[in-house]
Amino acid sequence: MWGNVLLSPPRIELPQDVTTNILHRQGAKSELKCAQKVCTTWWKVSNDPTLWQAIDFSNPRQGVFNDEYNVMCCCAVDRSHGQLVELTIHYFNDDVLFDYIVHQ
C-alpha cells in the first residue's frame, strides 16, 4: 500500500503571448507583487519589457499618496527598459516620480 500520495496537476505550458496577456490583465500591482512568484515561466514573462509597454498604475485609493505606489511605479517603468509607450497614473502627486518617469 502506497499510502497518501499527493500528485501534482498536469503541467500546462501556455504560449508566451497567452501568458503575457493573462499577466497584463492582472494589473501592474499584481504583476509586481504576486505573478512573478507563481512559477519560473511567470517570473520570466513578468520581467519581459514587452509586458511593460503599457502600464495602468491608477492608485485605487483616491487621494492616498504613499511610497509603496511610487516604488512600484518606478519598478514597472524600469522593467519596460525604455519600451514604455503608455502610462496611466491617477491620484499621484509626486514631482520626483514624474521626473523619474520622464528620464527613463
From TrEMBL:
Secretion signal span: none
Domain of life: Eukaryota
SUPFAM superfamilies referenced in this protein's UniProt entry, alphabetically: F-box domain
Pfam families: F-box-like (PF12937)
F-box domain boundaries: 13-57
Entry protein name: F-box protein SKIP19-like
Lineage: Eukaryota, Viridiplantae, Streptophyta, Embryophyta, Tracheophyta
